[in-house]
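Severity: low
Component: inverse-folding endpoint
Summary: output formatting inconsistent between runs
Steps to reproduce: submit the following structure tokens with default settings.
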């Protein structure tokens, strides 16, 4: 069973920074592509960032490009989301997701691409 657990969410002021972590239990995730998604109240879950299983390819939503950075360390806690210059509109529950990568350089952007999900961590940005 694949289990993902997010951490690092909290209340932060606009302009501040947070680092989210996604921990995997029970197995190595070196062969898995991973992603971050978020869902604000009353809105659909949306893509934030994705990273290939090798870590060499990344992709970002336009809304976070230049402010957020996704990375992974397959030897330790497998994935991170560094969030800088946070805005009130970044307020949401952030969830990490994983799937088996077809190729080491592939990343995936759709909710339907990922079969494995964490429970999410709340990020609140105050103005």
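Observed output (run 2 of 3):
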């Amino acid at each position: 069973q694949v289990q993902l657990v997010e951490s690092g969410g909290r209340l932060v002021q606009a302009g501040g920074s947070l680092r989210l972590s996604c921990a995997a239990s029970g197995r190595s995730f070196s062969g898995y592509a991973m992603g971050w998604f978020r869902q604000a109240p009353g809105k659909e879950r949306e893509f934030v960032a994705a990273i290939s299983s090798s870590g060499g390819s990344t992709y970002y939503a336009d809304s976070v490009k230049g402010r957020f950075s996704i990375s992974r360390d397959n030897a330790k806690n497998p994935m991170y989301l560094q969030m800088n210059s946070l805005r009130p509109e970044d307020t949401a529950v952030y969830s990490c997701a994983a799937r088996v990568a077809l190729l080491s350089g592939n990343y995936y952007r759709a909710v339907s691409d990922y079969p494995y999900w964490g429970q999410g961590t709340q990020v609140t940005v105050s103005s």
